[in-house]
């Protein structure tokens, strides 16, 4: 049994594709009608519910490695005018010795071989990236880049910062992730839909300033909601446990929430949460939270806020697997610092003092419910529950009986009529 996963715009062709696949292979095809999270990720959970032994993923993909099922990607072939793209590249890079790395959207990968044949004789220092589905075997060699399902080898002595980036594809999350990750490289792009090439004018520093502002918000937060944005990317359970441990040692309370695709209406139900962290693939992690009631950050930004050993180096990480043990960007948590020796910090947003040191992981547990204890239930709840503490701080907590506190009075007749014109209100004459 094989699961066929289509994005929303391709679901109209799902029935015909499934019928032809069954006739050609003899295997039973199961169409996944909708994905729990982003359509660029493989929905392994829905495939396992159908008892599938493999997944065929159609359409654009983030190429994040999966955990269990074998996956075959069918990107599709969007039309690309190779001649016009070559001309746009020559206009953007008139110097023939320019060092350029060519990236592309997956739907244009079929035409990269022809584009390479056109440009390589003229540009000896050009590098074309290759698509890699899953983790490539073996360790990376010096100068090799493996990110976002792309793989290429940089041979310049100065490294990748000596190169410019040329992206073939429309503006979107993929290009934004590339520009934030390789923010030291100048970017240009060619849009196959419009047939125009341009130097990317997106102010990356301004975008980074916005993300660093969110890091400061995360330092001020007392309650953090961990949003599960994927159930198929390898390592998501490990990073969830890492974030819980990090928040616990930083003195912050955390809730793990699985709400599917996050939107402002869903997250507005959790008023006691100060900030959310989204665990998703590299493309969907950069969520624009300007319309949300609370900000949404990435795991890397949360680690910048809570891990004193993690320092800002100018490199931005959107793949949460880079934070896990064994990765090149992993940073161990420093030992705990006693509260008396901790150096306090001042919030750049509120101006209040805050603690930035890590505590020892808690070892003692609360007494069981059968144990006798004399305590104030309200204060006990507020001490162990951020939701109860938030409710206690509100001036209005819902309908309360207040027995014995309300004076007794006789019932009186109220207003009659409808809101547009009560009986005791005078009518205006035209």
List the main descriptive attributes of the protein structure presented here:
430 residues, alpha/beta, Rossmann fold, 3 domains, five-stranded mixed sheet, four-stranded parallel sheet, 11 helices, globular
Describe it:
- Pathway: Protein modification; peptidyl-diphthamide biosynthesis.
- Belongs to the DPH1/DPH2 family. DPH2 subfamily.
- Keywords: Iron, Iron-sulfur, Metal-binding.
- By secondary structure, the chain is of the alpha/beta class.
- It folds into three domains: 73 residues, Rossmann fold (3-Layer(aba) Sandwich), CATH 3.40.50.11840; 121 residues, Diphthamide synthesis DPH1/DPH2 domain 2 (Rossmann fold, 3-Layer(aba) Sandwich); 119 residues, Diphthamide synthesis DPH1/DPH2 domain 3 (Rossmann fold, 3-Layer(aba) Sandwich), CATH 3.40.50.11860.
- Helices cover 24% and strands 17% of the residues.
- A five-stranded mixed β-sheet has the order 6-5-10-11-12, with helices on one face. The protein has a four-stranded parallel β-sheet with strand order 2-1-3-4.
- Helix 6 packs across helix 9 and helix 10 packs across helix 11.
- It is globular, with a radius of gyration of 28 Å.
- It starts with a strand and ends in an 8-residue tail after the last strand.
């Amino acid at each position: 049994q094989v699961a066929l996963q289509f994005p929303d715009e391709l679901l109209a062709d799902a029935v015909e594709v499934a019928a032809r696949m069954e006739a050609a292979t003899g295997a039973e095809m199961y169409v996944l009608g909708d994905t729990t999270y982003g359509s660029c990720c493989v929905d392994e959970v829905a495939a396992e519910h159908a008892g599938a032994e493999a997944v065929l993923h159609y359409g654009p993909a983030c190429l994040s490695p999966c955990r269990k099922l074998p996956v075959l990607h069918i990107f599709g072939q969007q039309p690309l005018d190779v001649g016009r793209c070559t001309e746009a590249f020559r206009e953007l890079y008139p110097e023939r010795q320019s060092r350029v790395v060519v990236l592309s959207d997956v739907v244009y990968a079929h035409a990269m071989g022809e584009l390479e044949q056109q440009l390589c004789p003229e540009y000896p220092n050009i590098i074309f990236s290759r698509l890699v589905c899953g983790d490539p075997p073996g360790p990376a060699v010096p100068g090799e880049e493996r990110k976002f399902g792309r793989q290429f080898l940089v041979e310049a002595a100065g490294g990748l910062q000596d190169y410019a980036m040329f992206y073939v594809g429309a503006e979107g999350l993929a290009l934004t992730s590339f520009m934030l990750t390789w923010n030291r490289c100048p970017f240009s792009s060619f849009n196959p839909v419009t047939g125009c090439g341009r130097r990317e004018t997106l102010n990356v520093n301004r975008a980074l300033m916005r993300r660093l502002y969110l890091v400061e918000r995360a330092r001020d937060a007392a309650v953090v909601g961990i949003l599960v944005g994927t159930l198929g990317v390898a390592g998501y359970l490990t990073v969830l446990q890492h974030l819980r441990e990090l928040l616990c040692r930083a003195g912050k309370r955390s809730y793990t929430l699985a709400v599917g695709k996050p939107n402002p209406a869903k997250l507005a139900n959790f008023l006691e949460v100060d900030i959310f962290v989204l665990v998703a693939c590299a493309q969907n992690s950069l969520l624009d939270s300007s319309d949300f009631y609370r900000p949404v950050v990435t795991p890397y930004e949360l680690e910048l806020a809570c891990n004193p050993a993690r320092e800002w180096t100018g490199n931005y990480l959107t793949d949460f697997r880079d934070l896990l043990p064994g990765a090149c960007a992993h940073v161990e948590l420093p030992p705990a610092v006693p509260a008396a020796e901790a150096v306090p910090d001042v919030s750049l947003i509120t101006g209040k003092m805050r603690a930035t040191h890590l505590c020892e992981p808690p070892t003692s547990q609360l007494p069981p419910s059968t144990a006798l204890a004399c305590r104030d239930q309200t204060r006990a709840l507020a001490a162990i529950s951020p939701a109860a503490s938030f409710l206690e701080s509100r001036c209005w907590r819902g309908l309360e009986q207040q027995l014995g506190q309300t004076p007794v009075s006789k019932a009186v007749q109220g207003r009659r009529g409808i809101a547009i014109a009560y009986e005791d209100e005078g009518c205006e004459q035209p």
